[in-house]
């Protein structure tokens, strides 16, 4: 599980646990779910999909906590007023963090399938060679992991190979017409075009403070 996902879940569960103190009835529902997540956390191999079913219950408890904070901020006027004001400010901050995280991950997801876009463009711009009625496309491991599936493939004359561990210098002797490859320079082939995809997030001074860094895939 990625660090940014863990941070997001931490903020989410922070508000959820506040609900336990604001409304004791929440404990009856949240305790089994929290135990479920804790047990799954003991697995050596961790993925978010294993615990995604617990998110609705955490959302419910977080909504209860947010509702109590909002009501207390508006209507309570006692010696704990400053405490409720602080919690309300924290709640607004968490909402803004959640919104920003959602925007960033949406932009990253949109740019996260460069191989699929590259294969689509290849189908549009590719042309038959003079010595073959078929067009063989080799898809390297990097490309196969970044947006290409069987649904992206076309019928004849297109043929596809996902054979792994082929040395770069041997690709020329395999009679491939096109390569979808992360390397721009391969002997015997010319890079026709490149497609950029999400690589990482870069922090910068100015607006916007965050930019997406893209990596290129060569065809």
Report on the structure:
The protein is of the alpha/beta class. 47% of the residues lie in helices and 14% in strands. It folds into two domains: 3-110, no CATH class; 114-199. It has six helices and five strands; from the N terminus they run αααααβαββββ. The strands form two sheets. It has a three-stranded parallel β-sheet. It has a two-stranded antiparallel ribbon with strand order 4-5. Helix 2 packs antiparallel against helix 3. The model has no long low-confidence stretch (mean pLDDT 77).
SS field, number of helical segments? 6
The count of β-strands is: 5
Distance between the termini: 31 Å
Helix content: 40-55%
Taking pLDDT < 50 over at least 5 consecutive residues as the criterion, the unreliable ranges are none
Topology:
Elements: H1 3-22, H2 25-40, H3 55-75, H4 81-110, H5 114-125, E1 135-139, H6 141-144, E2 158-161, E3 178-180, E4 194-203, E5 210-218
Parallel strand pairs: 1-2, 1-3
Antiparallel strand pairs: 4-5
Helix pairs in contact: 1-3, 1-4, 2-3, 3-4
Observed structural traits:
single chain; 219 residues; alpha/beta; 2 domains; 6 helices; 5 strands; elongated; endoplasmic reticulum; dol-P-Man:Man(7)GlcNAc(2)-PP-Dol alpha-1,6-mannosyltransferase activity; transferase; transmembrane helix; transmembrane
What is the compact description of this entry?
With 219 residues, the protein is α/β, with parallel strands linked by helices. It is elongated, with a radius of gyration of 25 Å.
């Amino acid at each position: 599980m990625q660090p940014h996902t863990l941070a997001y879940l931490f903020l989410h569960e922070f508000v959820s646990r506040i609900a336990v103190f604001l409304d004791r009835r929440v404990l009856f529902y949240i305790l089994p779910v929290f135990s479920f997540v804790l047990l799954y956390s003991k697995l050596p191999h961790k993925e978010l999909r294993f615990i995604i079913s617990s998110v609705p219950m955490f959302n419910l408890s977080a909504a209860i906590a947010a509702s109590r904070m909002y009501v207390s901020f508006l209507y309570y006027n006692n010696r704990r007023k400053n405490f409720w004001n602080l919690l309300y400010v924290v709640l607004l901050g968490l909402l803004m963090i959640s919104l920003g995280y959602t925007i960033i991950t949406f932009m990253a997801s949109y740019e996260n399938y460069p191989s699929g876009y590259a294969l689509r463009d290849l189908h549009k711009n590719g042309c038959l060679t003079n010595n073959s009625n078929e067009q063989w496309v080799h898809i390297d491991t990097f490309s196969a992991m970044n947006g290409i599936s069987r649904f992206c493939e076309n019928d004849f004359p297109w043929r596809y190979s996902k054979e792994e561990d082929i040395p770069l210098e041997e690709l020329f002797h395999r009679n491939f017409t096109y390569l979808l490859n992360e390397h721009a320079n391969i002997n015997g082939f010319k890079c026709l075009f490149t497609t950029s995809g999400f690589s990482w997030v870069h922090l910068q001074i100015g607006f916007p403070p965050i930019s997406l860094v893209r990596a290129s895939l060569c065809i």
